[in-house]
Amino acid sequence: MTSEPFTLRWGILATGGIAKTFTKDLLVDPATRSATDIRHEVVAAASSTSASHAQDFLTFLNLPTAKAYGSYAALVSDPNVDIIYIATPHSHHYANARLALVANKHVLVEKPITVNAAQAQILHDIAREKGLFLMEAVWTRFFPLATEVCKIVEEGRLGEVKRVWADLSFWNDVEREFGVGHRMVNMDLAGGALLDLGVYSLTWVFQILYHILPAAQKGNPSVASSITKYKATGCDEMTSMILTFPPDGAHGIATTNIRVATDVNPEHPSPAPIRIQGTLGDLTIAAPCYRPTSYTLIPASSASRGTPASFSYQTVEHEVPGGGHGMFWEADECARCIRDGKLESEVMPVEESVAVMRVMDEVRKQGELVYSTAFESVEWGE
Ligand SMILES: NC(=O)C1=CN([C@@H]2O[C@H](COP(=O)(O)OP(=O)(O)OC[C@H]3O[C@@H](n4cnc5c(N)ncnc54)[C@H](OP(=O)(O)O)[C@@H]3O)[C@@H](O)[C@H]2O)C=CC1
Ligand SMILES: O=C1OC[C@@H](O)[C@H](O)[C@H]1O
Hints:
Belongs to the Gfo/Idh/MocA family. The chain is of the alpha/beta class.
């Protein structure tokens, strides 16, 4: 017996770069990724600039019947919208997500969920109190490759994982490309490498050394870190973190940088950005780590370590179907959770977003990186 797919009706809050990429993915036919139980409909978009800006966005995406709003408040009041996708700069995630939750909308909010852990915890509390779904848009976790890698580690195929290295860095001509106003470096938009890119390094470390552990063994890591600031604005341009996780002291080494690149030159091989090291061997994931499509298993020499013959050297390639970017998998997760009455995703639980934010808070404390009092506050946007 076939039943009608569940339809999730989206409202897009902000009309910048990632809002366009995400909305395009919502429009990819779910059948191209063998998803027949859910579908997505984009019913409205809002721009804080003007309604005509929102209309241009919808026209660009060929959505003639969707409604265009000139304010975020109007969008979250639309009774035809089930879920709001928030695609504003980091500084505004908390206020925008809160606005949507208070208006009784489910929320998918771009990474990082907020500027600090206290704000993320408040969003979590509001969502739970109101019975609404809330998730940070860490799209990487919903790639089939990420699921497969977690399963390999959970099954113990790498032995005991002792260390995870994770880097996301891009070479940029920082002064010329970003100056002082670009969201990547603008302190008034909570810019900087850590919140924008380091969140991916941390998500890989957390997936392996935190997420897949049994609840009784999970705990917050201790943090040692270093930040180098961009002189022109004071945001972080290089951040390196060493996290030590319970229960056995495994290390997660998470780095991010906007002056040197993970993938130095596509014409020459670079070291893998993600390296999961177990007692029986390694699993590496090729760049880009936020859109992972290839991993390699490297067995340790078996004579001394007892690595089984079944653990053979191999590279496994995946592809992103349907001509999409790969953001549709996180959207599918939202649809299934909401259909099933779940308030959060088991793959990206809010509690874990809060735990990652706590690490970022500590790293910023150690590096004396503080954003404006206004949007570090939990009153921001009230
Ligand atoms: N998942 C991913 O792969 C990616 C995620 N991101 C995340 O998405 C978010 C947005 O990034 P991106 O789309 O690149 O940014 P853009 O600058 O391209 O767009 C941000 C949009 O936010 C709205 N906005 C509201 N208030 C402000 C403000 N004070 N200053 C600037 N813009 C404002 C604007 O839309 P309007 O005028 O319509 O209101 C603007 O177009 C960030 O959180 C970033 O981390 C970014 C890139 C990739
Ligand atoms: O989320 C992101 O992933 C890809 C990067 O290019 C981008 O700057 C970042 O915001």
